[in-house]
Amino acid sequence: MFNAISRRGLMAGAKGMALAAVATLTAVPVFAQDKVTLGALRFTSHGAGFVALEKGYFAEEGLDVDLEFFQSAQPIAVATASGDVDFGVTGVTGGLMNLAEKDAIRIVGGVLHEKAGYDGMMILASNKAYDAGLTSVDDIPGHSVAMTQVGSTFHYMTHLIAEDKGWNMDDIRLVPLQKVGSMVAALKSGQVDVMIMVPHIAKALVEAGAAKELGWLNESAEYQISTIITSVENIEENRDMVERFLRAYGKGIADMNRVMLSDDADPAEKEEITKMIHKYVYADRPYEKAAPSIQAGAMFLNDGAAVNKTDIAEQMQWFTEEGLVDSDLTVDQLVDTSFVQSY
């Protein structure tokens, strides 16, 4: 009797435990991660997004992020407006501003900021132009300058240098080449005289003897180069997702600034982050060859994805005065400051 009762008791107990386990499992909510596509360039300055992805910061915020890469900044704004990507890390361009004026996209955070004391955009001369006498920034008037498109960040950077030096933009021949790769090729071959470029590309060209360093953009100006953008539809209908994305991206920025901009960073951690970025930047090169260029390309990123709205307003004014942006655009249409700190 004792054995029979014990057997029945054990079976009942086991069944009860199984039911309890099922109840416990079904009581725990299972959330599907939001699928998100981020438009980016294969630059070290976009590394915060790569780090946030590789370290799981996006996943922790319930975001399943895919990357889509572009050859220049303005197409990222177009893709964000059309919904082909959910977020873009891209320069502040005339194209972006015109899409904001149509209530298609907004800037919701800041990323790359040209800042004195940190390596930034280098001003380079082709070997051909240098040998012909273009040996300093002051010699640029009368020469050709590469850019991606009219209204691009490269266009605005050239204006900043000209303004600082007191030149007339008509004294410079701007050459739109559509893609960064085409700009580099044109400079190396001597088809253009001058190019302004991110350090991980610029330093490698100088070290290889393919171009000459003339100076740095931050010797003329500090400004908000790139931002995080999303659609107005995302802001209005999926605000929580935007907030989560920015929190995760901000963690990636913190890691980039803390490790890649510090001479005292832990070498092992610096190598770890460099390897994460290498999956997306110079991925076709062996790590040992790519790592120095990736590390040399680290630039100052806005802490917490804060955005310099004051500077963006100045950029907007110039683009408007040049007839590249609709005059009806307001800075509040362009920048939504409700997500991150602005200044």
Quick recap:
The chain is α/β, with parallel strands linked by helices and 343 residues long.
Topology:
Blueprint: H1 2-27, E1 34-40, H2 47-54, H3 57-60, E2 63-69, H4 74-82, E3 87-91, H5 94-101, E4 105-110, E5 122-126, H6 127-131, E6 144-147, H7 153-165, E7 173-176, H8 180-189, E8 194-197, H9 199-207, E9 211-216, E10 226-231, H10 232-237, H11 239-260, H12 267-278, H13 287-296, H14 309-321, H15 331-334
Parallel strand pairs: 1-2, 1-3, 6-7
Antiparallel strand pairs: 3-10, 4-10, 5-8, 5-9
Helix pairs in contact: 2-11, 4-5, 9-13, 11-12, 12-13
What number of structural domains do the residues give?
2
| Secondary structure tally: strands | 10
Mean model confidence by pLDDT: 91
Backbone CA Rg? 25 Å
Helices, by number, come to: 15
Dominant shape: globular
Structural class assignment: alpha/beta
Q: What pattern of helices and strands is seen along the backbone?
A: HEHHEHEHEEHEHEHEHEEHHHHHH
Strand count, sense and closure of the main sheet? 5 strands, mixed
Query: Quaternary state, please?
Result: single chain
Tell me the β content.
15-25%
CATH architecture of the largest domain: 3-Layer(aba) Sandwich
Q: Could you name the ranges where pLDDT drops below 50 across 5 or more consecutive residues? A: 1-30
The fold-level CATH name of the largest domain is D-Maltodextrin-Binding Protein, domain 2
CATH superfamily of the largest domain: Periplasmic binding protein-like II
Head-to-tail CA distance between termini: 82 Å
Helix proportion = 40-55%
